[in-house]
Design brief:
Strand order of the largest sheet: 4-1-7-8
Number of strands: 8
Helix content: under 10%
Shape: globular
Number of helices: 0
Radius of gyration: 12 Å
Structural class: mainly beta
Oligomer: single chain
Largest sheet: 4 strands, mixed
């Protein structure tokens, strides 16, 4: 049964987010800009990679998470999963 992965950008600036589509071939895996202090969700059904990059593409980081997780981005060195 599909669930979702929620991404919360807790940073004071927009961040680009990528969520893999290993478990949802109809989903999108393009980079998506999440504004500051905003939440977005992706429908998935299993383990997925959630990656972040800055607007200049000089920094990247990511985590591998299970569906129905919330990934909160604070900085590239502070990403939490709950």
């Amino acid at each position: 049964m599909p669930g979702s992965i929620i991404v919360h950008n807790a940073a004071p600036v927009p961040i680009s987010v990528f969520v893999s589509k290993y478990t949802n071939s109809k989903g999108s895996d393009i980079w998506f800009t999440v504004p500051a202090d905003t939440r977005e969700s992706w429908e998935r059904d299993g383990w997925e990679l959630v990656a972040f990059k800055n607007t200049d593409d000089t920094h990247r980081a990511g985590v591998y998470v299970r569906v129905d997780s919330t990934v909160t981005f604070y900085t590239f060195k502070d990403i939490t999963v709950s």
